């Protein structure tokens, strides 16, 4: 990228960790604005998904196997025996009373420390998906208590009794070429227990077959053996899910949709009532169906909602459903949080003070993400002359930061230099524009390709960067930050552990690498990106604060639309579906105050209360 003259007014272009997997890469924006400096902010837009996983092949395989299952004879669904009301009281009580009774065991556990067991698939040609999805589920369950994650093959009889709830992720379609790897003991325990079981994705039909279809339909009121991913010969186009009064989006690239199971709910004598918790809409034919259904102790989610995720996505429904199993007594509460991003020694202190004055006048606490050293090693914005500036060398900026801290700000560390060496990584080597802990390049199709950790990457190297950053804050007379945000939301597994050892929490979206749960060496090129609607303790053992609605971005680039205050407000509205969630966003202080004001006013109008990052 050729050097460009730096202008006072900066155009911010946002790096997108895109959920859609195209050519094994995450996509990102990259464009030039005439006469102005580009500034690539942290990840936003559709910012969660999988890297270097063949989801197109997985989708094709799943649909092929499901079509084959549909052509095979299936067991009779009509109950052949009657079970007394005493044996199955769920059939003789109201839906509300039944759910209260069935969730009572979880209530008791929630009063102590809720525990979750996450079971995942590892078999078959797409077995690699299981661990990635399990990390996503474990991270979210980490909001509530302790989490144990195991391959489903390791389940043993009675294990369910040691946990408040069990989450099974059916990512491998068992049947056809891949034999069923789920132990019979799990099928039996899941059916016999009163403990909440959350089941998402494939193989629920195998459970019905294992325990007996009549017995399954009597207890649960629907028949998985006659439920399929197709409706009328096609998977259709499921574009939205309605949950708790909010319309959530579902956007899957053509050819990569593995489908959504349509539960065949049964009615009449002998069948338990089924509660449709979330409604899916197939836009191709207008049909609606239970995207998430609950009966007895089983909550079934018709797909695995961790791919192709956006700030208004249907994953929000799953994020809230975890409360039913792990903290059902949780009261409704909606908090919001804002941070000011990419502040460095090169920032304009007048702009910083203007932001501080507005937020202080509104009594809004906020975070300030500060990069302690600004460097432009190739002189991209300095007429070809290399330039490096520390905070101590910019007393006016330091004074503005202290002014902010005295008016409700919380100091956060945003890397050491927020760039890597003197190379394009991937843009120009300048602070705030480039990755610091991860290598990346721009391909011919204008995609940002994640290449893996930097060559020097190690726990020692990352610690050196962190120590150097903290030293610069001390030399500038600023307090030690206790919160961290990884530059461009990308580091290695080793890096994340170092950050966790030095800071009380990270405020960010994060990458989670294959091998983390299994104990194998982390695969630096296979990961899932994730963001959260509430505080979690993630699989790295670190407290992570949410950033889930993105940032203000007034320009559209590379087919990604601009992200205006109305878009952030819409994302906050969708997240009202989370009964105790946080709408968290960030804003670059080189933009005018008015868009920030519009965003905050809109989020407040939804009923959110702004809180400090330090309060979470």
TrEMBL record:
InterPro entries on file: DUF2334 (IPR018763)
Entry keyword annotation includes Signal: yes
Pfam family, one: DUF2334
Signal peptide: 1-33
Alphabetical keyword list: Signal
Bias (Basic and acidic residues): 62-75
Protein name per its UniProtKB record: DUF2334 domain-containing protein
Phylogenetic placement of the source organism: Bacteria, Bacillati, Actinomycetota, Actinomycetes, Kitasatosporales
């Amino acid at each position: 990228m050729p050097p460009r003259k730096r202008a006072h007014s900066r155009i911010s272009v946002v790096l997108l960790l895109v959920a859609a997997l195209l050519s094994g890469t995450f996509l990102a924006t990259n464009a030039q604005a005439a006469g102005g400096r580009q500034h690539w902010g942290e990840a936003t837009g559709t910012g969660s998904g999988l890297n270097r996983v063949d989801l197109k092949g997985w989708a094709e395989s799943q649909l092929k196997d499901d079509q084959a299952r549909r052509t095979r004879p299936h067991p009779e669904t009509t109950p052949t025996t009657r079970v007394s009301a005493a044996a199955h009281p769920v059939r003789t009580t109201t839906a509300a009373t039944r759910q209260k009774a069935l969730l009572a065991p979880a209530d008791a556990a929630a009063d102590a420390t809720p525990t979750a067991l996450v079971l995942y698939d590892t078999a078959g040609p797409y077995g690699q998906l299981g661990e990635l999805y399990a990390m996503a589920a474990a991270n979210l369950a980490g909001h509530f208590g302790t989490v144990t994650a195991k391959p489903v093959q390791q389940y043993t009889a009675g294990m369910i009794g040691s946990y408040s709830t069990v989450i099974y992720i059916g990512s491998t379609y068992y049947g056809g070429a891949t034999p069923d790897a789920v132990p019979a003991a799990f099928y039996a325990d899941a059916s016999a227990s009163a403990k909440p079981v959350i089941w998402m994705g494939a193989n629920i039909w195998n459970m019905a077959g294992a325990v007996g279809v009549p017995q399954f339909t009597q207890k649960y009121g629907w028949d998985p053996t006659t439920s399929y991913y197709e409706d009328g010969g096609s998977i259709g186009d499921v574009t939205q899910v309605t949950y708790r009064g909010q319309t959530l989006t579902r956007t899957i690239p053509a050819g990569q949709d593995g489908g959504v199971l349509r539960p065949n709910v049964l009615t009449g004598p002998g069948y338990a009532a089924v509660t449709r918790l979330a409604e899916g809409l197939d836009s191709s034919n207008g049909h609606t169906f239970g995207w998430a259904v609950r009966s007895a102790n089983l909550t079934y989610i018709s797909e695995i909602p961790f791919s192709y995720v956006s700030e208004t996505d249907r994953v929000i429904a799953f994020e809230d459903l975890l409360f039913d199993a792990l903290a059902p007594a949780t009261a409704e509460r909606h908090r919001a949080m804002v941070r000011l991003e990419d502040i460095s020694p090169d920032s304009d202190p007048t702009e910083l003070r203007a932001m501080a004055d507005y937020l202080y006048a509104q009594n809004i606490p906020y975070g300030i993400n500060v990069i302690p050293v600004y460097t432009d090693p190739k002189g991209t914005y300095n007429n070809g002359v290399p330039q490096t500036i520390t905070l101590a060398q910019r007393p006016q900026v330091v004074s503005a930061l202290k002014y902010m801290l005295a008016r409700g700000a919380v100091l956060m560390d945003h890397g050491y230099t927020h760039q890597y060496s003197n190379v394009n990584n991937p843009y120009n080597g300048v602070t705030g524009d480039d990755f610091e802990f991860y290598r990346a390049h721009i391909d011919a199709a204008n995609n940002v390709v994640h290449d893996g950790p930097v060559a020097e990457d190690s726990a020692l190297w990352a610690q050196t960067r962190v120590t150097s950053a903290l030293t610069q804050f001390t030399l500038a007379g600023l307090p030690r930050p206790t919160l961290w945000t990884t530059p461009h939301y990308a580091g290695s597994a080793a890096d994340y552990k170092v950050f966790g050892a030095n800071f009380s929490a990270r405020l960010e979206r994060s990458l989670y690498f294959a091998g983390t749960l299994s104990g194998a060496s982390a695969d630096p090129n296979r990961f899932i990106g994730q963001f959260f609607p509430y505080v979690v303790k993630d699989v790295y053992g670190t407290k992570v604060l949410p950033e889930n609605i993105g940032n203000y971005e007034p320009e559209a680039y590379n087919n990604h639309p601009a992200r205006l205050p109305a878009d952030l407000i819409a994302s906050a509205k969708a997240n009202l579906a989370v009964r105790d969630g946080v709408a968290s966003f960030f804003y670059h202080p080189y933009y005018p105050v008015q868009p920030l004001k519009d965003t905050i006013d809109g989020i407040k109008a939804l009923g959110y209360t702004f809180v400090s990052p330090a309060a979470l």
